[in-house]
Amino acid sequence: MKEYKFIAKTFSGLETELADELISLGAKDVKPLLRGVSFLGDIALMYKVNYQSRLSLRILMVLQSFPVKDERDLYQNVNKIEWERFLDPFGSLAVDAVSFHQKLKHTLFISQLAKDAVVDRIRNKEGRRPSVDLIAPDLRINLHLDQKEATVTLDSSGTPLFKRGYRIGTIEAPINEVLAAGLLALSKWNGEKALYDPMCGSGTFLIEAAMKATNTPAGKFRQEFAFMKWQDFDEKLWNRVKMEIYQAVVPLKAVIKGSDISRKSLSMTRRNLQESGFADQILLEARNFLKQEENFSGTVITNPPYNERMSLEDMDAFYRNIGSTLKHTCIDSDVWIITSNMEAVHAIGLRPAKKIKVFNGKLECRFLKYEIYSGSKKNVPTNNK
Fold it and tell me: Which of 33, 225, 231, 260 is surrounded by the most beta carbons within 10 Å?
């Protein structure tokens, strides 16, 4: 089967973990990029990565790169691509452009020119022009121009891959599913130790952990991917890829539990767990973590709530209480906290073993690891990354 170049997009800070994931899925010539990873593979791998990758936001298929001096070069080269392979003459398309070219600067003009090149070819081949749909096209084309070269890619995913399809209820500013899966990858949690999110919100960490531990594909609950609308979509191959993935699914063995002080959040979590199929396998409790007395040993991972109405003193007290609770009730545990509050986090009063810079959207955060021991542990090395 013919091989193509692909680019998997992700959050800044997750490139290495995504590269490792793609290698495990069978990708070749894997190269980390800024907020992405390039790789080689066939169409079956494209189907598989879209369906199985936990750390990808979308998968772009590279159709062609070519030198471009002016608008004539751009039109002619785009027009040469076999668009009839992907787009029905009764279908719709959209073209998104980014340009750093000295002559071709206006992205709206570039998009229009590329669109004309596509529809003119299909009209000449099929006798009918496809339509334009900027919201939900059958084919979304991405065009990137640097100072000398243009690269044409197709969005094979459609709806961003973080929209898994299991989350039907959310709290304010929930953590993105891909980011949650990425943080689990960074924590090196492998599904063997118990895992606990003491401020679980709508349950994203819990569900992503359960899916990871059982090899449940990230795209299980999605109804559609963009490649399904392509003219050359191979449904038999798609079904075979899914069947092979499902044969690797295993029962959940690790203890996964969550708690939250908000009953509204827990209600949302229960709905999401029900939708994901893990309602009977993940433990939930209504509990104020800061008043917890029961000990937990394993991996703790959480995204503490941030209330903009809190004063700096209140925020410091909140984080100070988190640190105290961890020291007294999470003995012999690896604790991971993601936060954007670089100042208040010092109030935790624990020395982080790791500090990893990640981004939650455009918000710069730190993913901090604390090693909680039953006795004193001096001179724990700090690994800033």
Answer: 260
Q: How far is CA 346 from CA 368, 376, 378, in A?
A: 11, 20, 18
Above pLDDT 90, what percent of the chain? 86
State residue 315's pLDDT score. 85
How far is Cα 203 from Cα 22, in angstroms, rounded to an integer? 26
The residue among 212, 199, 204, 162 whose CA lies nearest residue 339 is 199
Distance CA 43, CA 234 (A): 9
Other CB atoms within a 10 A radius of the CB of residue 163 amount to: 17
One DSSP character per residue, 307-339 reads: -TTS-HHHHHHHHHHHHHHHHHH-TTEEEEEEE
pLDDT tens digits, one per residue of 290-315 = 998 889 999 999 999 766 555 656 88
Largest CA distance in the chain: 78
Say which DSSP state 196 is in. E
Both tokens of residue 125?
Answer: 């081949």
DSSP 84: G
Q: Could you read off the pLDDT of 304-356 as tens digits, one per residue?
A: 976 655 565 688 899 999 999 999 999 999 999 999 888 888 999 999 999 99
Domains of the chain: 4-155 (3.30.2130.30), 177-218+250-384 (3.40.50.150)
